[in-house]
Amino acid sequence: MKKYFSVVLMALCSLTACAKEQVIAYDQVPEAAKAIVAAHFDASQISYVTVDKGLLDCDYDIKFNDGRSLEFNKAGELLKVDCKLAEVPSALIPEQVRAYVKANFPNAFITEWSKDDRRWKAELNSGLDLEFNSKYEFVRIDD
C-alpha cells in the first residue's frame, strides 16, 4: 500500500511539474491576441509576456508598464482584461453588459472583465463584482 501511494504521489508531482510558466517574446503571442492589443492598447508599453503551459492548454499573459494585464487562451481569445483603476476599452465588453452597467450603475465603469468557467465577471470601479451568464445576461452581484 505504501508503494502504491508513493507511485500515485510521484505521478501527481510530475503532472504538476509539467505546467510551466515562462517569459516569452511578444511576437510568440497568437495573432488574434496581437490584433486585440494593437486595436486597444499600446504595444510599446508591454512590460513582459508569459505563457503558462499545462498538459492540455496554455494561457498567455501580457503585462503592461502601468500594471494593466491581459490574458488569452492558445487561440488568442481574450479571457481577462484588468485595467486596474482605468476603464476597460468599451469595444472589449459586450453591448448587453455595457447597457446593463450604464442603466443600473450610471456613475460606475468596468475596470476588469473576465471569464470564469461558464460565467463572465465584470468588476466595477466602485468595487462591485457583477456576474453574467454565457449569453451576457445579468445573474447576480458577487460579494
List the helices and strands and how they pair.
Blueprint lengths: L1 H17 L1 E5 L6 H10 L5 E8 L4 E7 L4 E5 L4 E5 L12 H10 L5 E7 L2 E6 L4 E4 L5 E5 L1
Antiparallel strand pairs: 1-2, 2-3, 3-4, 4-5, 5-6, 6-7, 7-8, 8-9
Overall description:
- The protein is an alpha+beta fold.
- The chain has helices at 2-18, 31-40, 95-104, and strands spanning 20-24, 46-53, 58-64, 69-73, 78-82, 110-116, 119-124, 129-132, 138-142.
- It has two domains: 1-82, 3-Layer(aba) Sandwich (Inhibitor of vertebrate lysozyme, Ivy); 83-143, Inhibitor of vertebrate lysozyme, Ivy, CATH 3.40.1420.
- It is built from three helices and nine strands, in the order αβαββββαββββ.
- Strands 1-2-3-4-5-6-7-8-9 form a nine-stranded antiparallel sheet, covered by helices on one side.
- The longest helix has 17 residues, at 2-18.
